[in-house]
Structures are given as structure tokens and as C-alpha cells.
Amino acid sequence: MIAYGKFIQTVVDFTIIAFAVFVAVKVISSMNKKEEEAPAEPPKPSNEESLLIEIRDLLKDR
User: Fold this and answer.
1) Coil vs helix vs strand at 39
2) What are the angstrom distances between the C-alpha of 21 and each of 2, 12, 36?
3) What is the pTM of this model?
4) Alpha helices per DSSP H over 1-62
5) pLDDT value at position 38?
6) Gap between the Cα atoms of 7 and 11, Å rounded
7) What's the sign of the alpha-carbon dihedral 51, 55, 58, 60?
8) How many domains does the chain have?
9) What separation in angstroms does the CA of 24 have from each of 9, 42, 45?
10) Range of the domain at 22
């Protein structure tokens, strides 16, 4: 006796689980991609640079 019903049920179960895992991996992947795309803030200028910028601006105003 061949159990066609049990085989078909197993195939359907596998398909549903595989689709759920695929969607979960896609969602996680897209979340990680968005985090990577966010541009990093430029580093703040050092104290020396900020002083030089201030001096430059003061000289421009003269």
C-alpha cells in the first residue's frame, strides 16, 4: 500500500516551512542592509581644527 496522502502532506508542510524561513531571512537581511546604508556622522573636528576655523572666520570678517 502506498500512502499518497501522507507524502503530499509532508511536501505541503515542507513548502510552508521553507517559505516562512525564506521570508524571515529576507526581512533580517533587509534590516541589516538598512543599518549599513545609514551614513556615519563625520568626525567632529579636533580642538586645534576648531580654533583654526574660528581664526579663519574672524579674519574673513575683517
Assistant:
1) coil
2) 30, 14, 23
3) 0.53
4) 4-37, 47-61
5) 64
6) 6
7) negative
8) 1
9) 23, 33, 42
10) 4-61
